[in-house]
From TrEMBL:
<keyword id="KW-0964">Secreted</keyword>
<feature type="region of interest" description="Disordered">
    <location>
        <begin position="1"/>
        <end position="23"/>
    </location>
</feature>
<dbReference type="Pfam" id="PF21258">
    <property type="entry name" value="Glyco_hydro_120_ins"/>
</dbReference>
<dbReference type="InterPro" id="IPR011050">
    <property type="entry name" value="Pectin_lyase_fold/virulence"/>
</dbReference>
<dbReference type="InterPro" id="IPR012334">
    <property type="entry name" value="Pectin_lyas_fold"/>
</dbReference>
<dbReference type="InterPro" id="IPR039448">
    <property type="entry name" value="Beta_helix"/>
</dbReference>
<dbReference type="Pfam" id="PF13229">
    <property type="entry name" value="Beta_helix"/>
</dbReference>
<dbReference type="InterPro" id="IPR049169">
    <property type="entry name" value="Glyco_hydro_120_ins"/>
</dbReference>
<feature type="domain" description="Glycoside hydrolase 120 insertion">
    <location>
        <begin position="81"/>
        <end position="147"/>
    </location>
</feature>
<protein>
    <submittedName>
        <fullName>Right-handed parallel beta-helix repeat-containing protein</fullName>
    </submittedName>
</protein>
<dbReference type="InterPro" id="IPR052052">
    <property type="entry name" value="Polysaccharide_Lyase_9"/>
</dbReference>
<feature type="domain" description="Right handed beta helix">
    <location>
        <begin position="308"/>
        <end position="437"/>
    </location>
</feature>
<keyword id="KW-0732">Signal</keyword>
Length: 609
């Protein structure tokens, strides 16, 4: 027998959670729920950190869902009504340090392996005006002079560590928690627009480190649906530590995160997370990451049966300071589809090695399909780093990013199929074992040779065949793409001789390109309301003139000896075009089964359940 627990802002946590006697907090319902139960949350704003104590089963998940048509906000921020006015536009808030419990985001700084703070400290807290974050100003003096909007903070008795500019690079010691006066106060000073009163207007202060994250491992088969989730003081999510986003499938299996709006996380939106251990913050090196993999296999049971297989579907993910969706190891065998991801790592306040719209380590048999990514910062909207094996990037729309895709030191196979890639920089790769087919790619191609050593695995498994294998570039197949003049396929001339590349059926605008049909091309992407429409202003006159991609002609990715087909061997990514139309034996280059006439709506693309 299953139970529905009702949550209402007018409820009482001492009640039983029935429709007639709802509880007041999601956490109170979570404490009662077991496999197969549903937690139904009514309209309102819930200011709490939800730590689900147990999960469900594959057939009977525990479902956390908003009442259909209700607007339900789960937030890491609080409102305060004791701001004092300093002068015109300048306000001050004093919060007792005891208010924060065991985590004060204005004492803690953003830190971690491979994080570069650009010679300044970045507090994990944030201030929000009308739902959007305000910039943290490095000094109180800058605020008091009245130069721009923003905020700064001080904490009584705070003892800051010296800044380590490239934290995690060779010899970085573990970060020590902040030390400060628990009986003192935290003072936040903010410069707001003229006429704004933070005691009345929509001004919020982040106070919680996350919103929906289990403390325990293996809290499996959780569904999170229909919420607006925002404003958490998350930390940098390196692949060598226990990763924590605003929503975290923490070292678990079988989560479904769908139909949510996830926004304004200090660092990460969703984490498909590696587990925590005693080595967090001590392994920010290549050799350290090898040890992370070994520990996951030997101590924590990293396998298809225990970890991964999550579904991240139809979410709006935006304004995450570091990354929209992140995962190291814990992302394996997952599906990321139908999401709109934008304005991630777009502030330009820090740099590092773990930033993107989607950033994954160990993306084994992961499908990234039908997503829309734009305005994502350096280095790419999608970054696949280490052990992308059996990974498929299919039917994604990408534009206005610093770069669309980065595949770093993988042995493949990786499929990049039916994508629309319109940014000025399209693909950076120092990987091998790649099929690039039926894409429209306008931005620059960069191919880097690399002699770093990275693992490859048994097909469709987490078990390494070799923990270290030099990853020289080669073994790439470019088939039936439409390429802008910045895509120079001669970049592959640096490939190693024993892993040759092949090129066929490509159409290019590059006047000196010898590996495809030269043509004219002009493309326009226009937004009308919520609909994005793509039009070819001039189009390759090639029709259905190319041979279909055939699995037998591709062979296998050379290093892992794995074929370029779905794990169940029943289908291939190139069977259908971007719009889902089946392809025949003769096909048109590019993501559509036939040349476009006029404009076509390419987003939204809601994925049916």
């Amino acid at each position: 027998m299953t139970t529905t627990f009702h949550v209402s802002g007018a409820g009482d946590d001492a009640d039983d959670g029935s429709a007639e006697r709802p509880v007041r907090t999601v956490s109170a319902a979570a404490a009662r729920a077991h496999a197969g139960d549903t937690i139904l949350v009514g309209a309102g704003t819930y200011r709490e950190r939800i730590d689900p104590p147990r999960g469900g089963t594959e057939d009977s998940p525990i479902t956390y869902t908003a009442v259909p048509s209700d607007h339900v906000v789960l937030t890491g921020s609080d409102r305060f009504e004791n701001w004092s006015r300093v002068d015109d536009g300048l306000w001050r808030l004093v919060i007792p340090n005891r208010y924060f419990g065991d985590f004060n985001p204005y004492a803690e700084v953003v830190h971690g392996d491979w994080f570069v703070g650009n010679d300044r400290r970045h507090r994990r807290g944030n201030i929000f005006l009308d739902g959007a974050w305000l910039p943290e100003v490095p000094s109180l003096d800058a605020l008091e002079t009245g130069i721009g909007l923003g905020w700064s903070s001080t904490v009584d008795g705070l003892q800051d560590r010296p800044i380590v500019e490239v934290a995690g690079i060779e010899g970085h010691a573990a970060y020590a928690p902040a030390v400060y006066d628990l009986e003192g106060v935290t003072t936040i000073t903010a410069r707001l627009p003229a006429g704004t009163d933070p005691n009345i207007d929509d001004v919020e202060v982040s106070v919680r480190a996350t919103v929906f994250t289990p403390t325990a491992e293996h809290i499996d088969h959780i569904t999170v649906r229909g919420f607006e989730i925002r404003n958490a003081a998350t930390n940098w999510v390196a692949p060598t530590v226990g990763q924590e986003g605003m929503v975290t499938a923490y070292w678990s299996r079988g989560w479904v995160i769908e139909d949510n709006e996830i926004c304004y996380s200090r660092c990460a939106g969703i984490a498909l997370a590696k587990n925590r251990d005693e080595f967090d913050g001590e392994r920010g090196t290549t050799d350290g990451y090898y040890l992370t993999i070994q520990d996951a296999l030997e101590r924590d049971g990293w396998s298809r049966e225990t970890i991964g297989s999550h579904v991240i579907r139809n979410n709006k993910i935006h304004h995450c300071g570091q990354v929209g969706i992140v995962g190291s190891l814990g992302c394996a065998f997952s599906v990321i589809e139908g999401n709109e991801i934008h304005d991630c790592n777009a502030q330009g306040i820090w740099t590092g090695w773990e930033m993107a719209g989607i950033k994954l380590h160990g993306a084994i048999d992961v499908v990234i399909r039908g997503n829309h990514l734009y305005r994502c910062g350096e280095p790419a909207a999608i970054w696949l780093d280490w052990m992308a094996q059996g990974t498929r990037l299919v039917d994604n729309l990408m534009h206005d990013n610093v770069r669309d895709v980065f595949t770093e030191v993988n042995h493949g196979p990786i499929q990049l199929v039916n994508n629309i890639m319109l940014s000025r920089r399209g693909l950076l790769t120092n990987s091998r074992g790649m099929l690039v087919a039926h894409n429209l790619i306008l931005g620059r191609l960069e191919v880097w040779d690399d002699e770093r050593e990275t693992p490859y695995l048994r097909p469709h498994s987490t078990l390494p065949v070799s923990m270290r294998r030099v990853c020289s570039v080669g073994d790439a197949h470019w088939v039936n793409n439409i390429l802008g003049d910045a895509v120079d396929l001669s970049e592959y001339d640096k490939s190693v001789p024993d892993q040759p590349c092949t090129f066929s059926g490509n159409v290019t605008t590059a006047s000196e390109e010898s590996r495809g049909l030269v043509t004219e091309l002009a493309v326009d992407l226009e937004r009308v309301g919520d609909v994005w429409r793509l039009a070819f202003l001039s189009h390759p006159d090639c029709g259905a003139s190319a041979d279909r991609v055939r699995r037998e002609s591709l062979g296998v990715a050379v290093v892992p000896q794995q074929v370029y087909i779905d794990p169940d061997a029943t289908s291939t990514a190139w069977d259908h075009d971007y719009m889902g139309v089946a392809r025949g034996d003769r096909v048109a280059p590019g993501p559509f089964h036939s040349p476009l006439i006029g404009a076509v709506a390419v987003w939204p693309r809601r994925v049916a359940v």
